[in-house]
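Hi V.,

You were right to ask for the full record rather than a summary. Here it is.
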Amino acid sequence: MKEVASREMWRLKTESRIKWKEIGWYLMLIIITIPFIFPLIWILTAAFKTQAQIIASPPLWIFKPTLNNFKSVFMEQNFARFLWNSSVVAVASTVLSLLLGLPAAYSISRYNQRALGVFILVARLMPGISFLIPWYILFSKIRLVDTFTALIASHMLVGLPLIVWIMLNHFDGIPRELEESARVDGCSIQNAFFRIVLPISGPGIITATTLSFLFSWNNFMFSLVLSTNRTKTLPIAIYNFVSYAEVSWGNVMAAAVVIITPAIILTMIFQRYVIKGLTMGAVKG
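Predicted structure:
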């Protein structure tokens, strides 16, 4: 009886320790995520407040929501056009980066062109601001400032190296025996790439596409220099609500919600694939 009671007490103590560890783990997660979630909650609530409610002290957590900020953003500031500009630039730069980056990453992986890979990595690691002046001078000479061509090309400077390095690790993890079997069956290198390698590289491609799109969607620096009213993108358009006298915080927050909503939706939809794509390239064989 004593032995049975002792085992039961040991089991209860073990379960209690496990339970407290789980509680501590969840508390730690909550503490870590609060600094990231709180700004999003603040932006979302402020987008539905008036200017007086936003700057009120102490902050108002109970208020009557208003859609006036969103109406002002889309009706008075022509924000739909800026939304279209950002969409065109982000989609076009991502698609072109994929068309160039996927074959480049495959070639570097299969033919051990590591010097080229390092060169691309250096271009990715260099601060984007170092390209601004040469980029502006070049596009000014060929009269491409304030065109989608200039913005797409400059955004590819960020997206293309990113896609190459994500897919390089992914292609390194794909067994070469699969392609050799396809070659034996009569496939050319190109057919093996399109019919064998790409179909099983879905998670990596989705990861590269998502990250490249988000970097382009949120890019501020290149658009600030290379665009004006005709091709202005969303991050730049927010400055329309900042004047010398005051900042229209309600409009700024509403515009911020418009900008971050596609990014959040895209991340939530492809979260599983992004995680899988980032981890698959780390395991070879």
